[in-house]
Amino acid sequence: xxxxxxxxxxxxxxxxxxxxxxxxxxxxxxxxxxxxxxxxxxxxxxxxxxxxxxxxxxxxxxxxxxxxxxxxxxxxxxxxxxxxxxxxxxxxxxxxxxxxxxxxxxxxxxxxxxxxxxxxxxxxxxxxxxxxxxxxxxxxxxxxxxxxxxxxxxxxxxxxxxxxxxxxxxxxxxxxxxxxxxxxxxxx
Length: 188
Fold this sequence. Notes:
The protein has helices at residues 49-58, 75-79, 97-111, 133-144, 149-159, 166-174, 178-183; strands spanning 5-8, 13-16, 29-33, 36-41, 61-66, 83-86, 122-126. The protein is of the alpha/beta class. The chain has a single domain (17-160), classed as Protein tyrosine phosphatase superfamily (Protein-Tyrosine Phosphatase, Chain A). α2 (75-79) links the parallel β5 (61-66) and β6. α4 packs across α5.
């Protein structure tokens, strides 16, 4: 049975199927580590949203994080049971603390704490080009899961070439895991 995707239009939501040869120009990158799986992409538009929906369905995505200004309507995604989180922050910048908290809360809720378990879901995350803000939040999640800042940058860049500008890489290098801060104690 063919899979149909919903496409939002200004007047209605209709079911359409992307042309079998239609492809995204900039393919989303899958980044996996332990029990987590992320799909990093550039920003969809209403005109190509069905192609992204096909990718979301293929990777069992139920959560999409948008860290840039909206470029598409969310009703088609919501009708498919995909929740969209709007957490925009400045291009080329690090995320503010409240967005980092919300992001890590979502990561924990979706993937849980069992690091031995294989991921059954994927969190899709995008910014305008899929090279800065979205990979930055993925790198933070990788650090929280145990990678060093250097390892998280390398893993992200291995899957998403050109990701993370110098300022964002410095932000990652300076980032300290919330978990490691909580677990350290001082004996006087």
